[in-house]
Amino acid sequence: MKMGEEHLVPLARQAVALLKDLQPVTGPKGYLFPSLRTGTRPISENTINAALRRLGYSKDEISGHGFRAIASTCLNEQGYAPDVIELQLAHAERNKVRAAYNRAQRLADRRKMMQAWADYLGGLLCWRGRRAHQAQGMSRASQFRPLASGSVAGRIAMRYTAS
Fold this sequence. Notes:
Layout: H1 13-26, H2 45-54, H3 66-77, H4 82-88, H5 96-101, H6 107-129, H7 131-134, H8 152-162
């Protein structure tokens, strides 16, 4: 549910596996990340931002909402259809006529995109463990699909994998 509208969210295999692993902790009902004040609401974006600050990131570096921007930028740079990306982010169509007539959910395209996104993120995590292989002549390009090196998302991705 976003802004009172139902929003279907296709999940990658990795996300489904994580949710299944967490179900014994969270139970069959309720929120995966409930508010500390009440179990009837999810945590807020401020909770995510506070956690990022405790991890050492300043508000000028990243915010909870910033992860959506990173995903959108990376997916656009990787050639996914902007309409599919915007649907996945639950962004409303700005063209009022198109919004009135176009009810497409593009679920098949979104499933494919989200699986590719999860595979990409998994590749970034695996790349950190593969640094030792670089000494053996493996190029970074052979280890994961790189973003444009000058892009903001590319610099962010490189920062996270370099730490």
